[in-house]
Amino acid sequence: MSTLTAAAPGAAVVGDPARLRRALGAFATGVTVVTVGGASPRGMTANSFTSVSLDPALVLVCVGNDAVMNRALAESDTFAVSVLGAGQEDVARHFADRSRPMGAEQFEAVDWLPGRATDAPLIAGAAAHFECVRWGAYDGGDHTIRLGRVTTLDDLPDRDPLVFHRGRFRQLAAQAQGGAA
Asked: Which residues form the Flavin reductase like domain (predicted)?
């Protein structure tokens, strides 16, 4: 039997954002592209996305307060989230690039389809799509926590997701046959 040792009390990261970012990177996340439609559509890569409630169906995304997308979400009643699939790292990098074009031109570099319930672009080949109506927005320090009520969804259950862990894009490892759970 092994003994685990906890970190010493007071070993906080206050004042050390690099260490905090590194520690948070130990938590693997999926990778999404959040989009809004309208006259000036916008997309943004985000890994701060999660389910909140099944009834009503609510999801959240956290967006930096200084991000163009934060303003776009504040001005739109609807948005969409595309959960990227394995092999879509180039899409994630495109929508994370702050020098990409504004408006509809930024979607010329990727395959997309129009949302059925919203006019927000959905990334083709994604593992799942969620179209949402704005539910609420909450202060989250240097980010805004944006909740949406899911109105339409699509998923491809056989499509593995793109994963982000320790600052790198990754893919799920194949499970060993007959391995222990």
From this structure: 24-171
Q: Which sign does the torsion angle of CA 69, 72, 74, 76 carry? A: negative
Q: Say which DSSP state 141 is in.
A: T
When divided into structural domains, the chain yields a total of 1
Q: Are 131 and 152 in contact (CB under 8 A)?
A: yes
CATH number, domain of 71, equals 2.30.110.10
Strands (E), 68-114: 78-83, 112-114
86: which residues sit within 8 A by CB, 6+ positions away? 159, 160, 161, 162, 171, 172
The phi, psi pair for 111, rounded to 5°, reads -80, 135
Both structure tokens of 66? 């200084």
- Please count the other Cβ atoms lying within 10 Å of the Cβ belonging to residue 38: 15
> Residue 47: which domain range?
34-164
CA distances from 60 to 2, 48, 95, 157, 172 (A): 39, 8, 19, 21, 23
- For residue 113, list its beta bridge partners: 122
User: Which residue, among 84, 106, 88, has the nearest Cα to 97 in the 3D structure?
Assistant: 106
